[in-house]
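Sequence only, no structure available. Ideas?
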Amino acid sequence: MSFITRGFSGAGRERDPRLPPGQTLVADWPVLSAGPTPDVSTDDWSFSIRTESGLTRWTWDEVLALGVEDVTVDIHCVTHWTKLDMDWRGVSLDRVFEKVETSADFVMVHSHGGYTTNIALEDLLDGKAWIATEAEGEPLEPEHGGPARLLVPALYFWKSAKWVRGLVMMDDDEPGFWEQNGYHMHGDPWTEERYW
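Reply:
I predicted one. Tokens follow.
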């Protein structure tokens, strides 16, 4: 497995009290990926949620038709960088889950390229997460997870899975890719839930 990282430079916590412990403020947007960058067109992209009762799937246009909104949030990477006041456009997972019934409390996020990450459903609802399609006024570039990535700003950025393609509902919390390799099951930057 190869890791790619570009664009990390910044200043320390003393610059802004919105920085979680151990984070460094950056002005750019560093890239960190494991493996090759998938190339998925919006014509081929779809999003699905598998529940105990079956599969619900949306095309690109169907997801956008649920209602795109603008959000400004801070993002925090487990590799110690933070970018503040970042502008995004996307569809709230609240809109998506209006069409889905489930009694499960956890999800496994699946991405093109085989990446997975686990998240509690309560960390995705009530205005906490989006299927993001644009960042800083531009469509998401593939290196940043385009055409769509999950955006969960309250958690470390590995939980905001690039190239998202779907969620599988789970009754129990199970580790995804990075969690199986030592990253924390939850990932709260304010309590430095970086690793097990």
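Residues 1-13 have pLDDT under 50 and may be disordered.
Hope that gets you unstuck.
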